[in-house]
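Design a sequence for this backbone.
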């Protein structure tokens, strides 16, 4: 088998032993390395010259990408993935990273030895213990919303307490992680908070009680989207709703002000029908 094709089928990075089992001869591999199309990553591992840099680094360090790093690579909402998070077996002396976080753990779901990426299930379990409850919940809910994990399979797995709690609490309805965080921070409130409600032809992020609408603006609320939002806000107000619109910055860094505003609205009974 052609070593380029064999590596392409394996995300561009693989063990030499795996390629040999797939039919790649030692001679063909040596020629590919000599031509520069394939590079040696570390003893027993090779990669395509243009392979994913994160996968190549993981193979070189003897680790797998996991936790928030893998979640972000899968398109899930994460609060911060600037530092790489990797996993290695306990007492794995060869694993090393120059920056980031190493999770020394025994995975609940077996890891494929040829993969430089963890399973998403293992990554979510690590997110549960690594991140704050609200940010971890947002990531879990993002995975459920995208149908990337099976809740039933997770339920049957021997989850640690933090992951078990997240599985019980997670709901697949939030449209973004910011909505998960908002709902979590107000979970103590003895007033119905309903996410993703269709009102007057548009979906709103939250309806508190019967009449208080809360909208959380992300970076896409500009241009035509912003114009549409303003028009819908006006329509809501004309029909007896009260609208509170908050930004990502306010949610994450000015929560006390946001919470006080919402409580003031509820105190004035603006969440109730006249």
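Sequence:
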């Amino acid at each position: 088998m052609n070593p380029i094709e064999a590596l392409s089928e394996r995300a561009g990075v693989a063990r030499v032993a795996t390629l040999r089992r797939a039919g790649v001869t030692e001679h063909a591999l040596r020629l590919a390395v000599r031509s520069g199309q394939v590079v040696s990553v570390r003893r027993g591992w090779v990669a395509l010259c243009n392979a994913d840099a994160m996968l190549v680094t993981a193979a070189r360090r003897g680790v797998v990408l996991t936790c928030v790093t893998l979640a972000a690579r899968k398109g899930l909402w994460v609060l911060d993935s600037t530092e790489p998070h990797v996993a290695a077996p306990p007492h794995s002396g060869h694993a090393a990273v120059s920056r980031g976080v190493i999770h020394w753990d025994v995975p609940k779901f077996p890891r494929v030895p040829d993969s430089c990426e963890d399973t998403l299930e293992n990554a979510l379990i690590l997110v549960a213990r690594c991140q704050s409850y609200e940010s971890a919940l947002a990531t879990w809910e993002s995975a459920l919303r995208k149908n990337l994990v099976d809740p039933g399979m997770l339920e049957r797995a021997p989850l640690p307490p933090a992951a078990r709690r997240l599985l019980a609490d997670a709901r697949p309805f939030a449209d973004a992680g910011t909505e998960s965080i908002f709902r979590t921070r107000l979970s103590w409130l003895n007033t119905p908070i309903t996410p993703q409600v269709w009102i007057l032809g548009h979906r709103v992020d939250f309806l508190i009680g019967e009449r208080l609408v809360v909208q959380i603006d992300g970076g896409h609320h500009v241009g035509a989207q912003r114009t549409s939002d303003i028009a819908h806000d006006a329509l809501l107000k004309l029909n007896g709703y009260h609208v509170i619109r908050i930004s990502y910055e306010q949610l994450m860094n000015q929560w006390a002000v946001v919470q006080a505003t919402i409580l003031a609205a509820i105190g004035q009974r603006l969440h109730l029908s006249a």
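The chain has three domains: 3-51, 60-169, 177-267.
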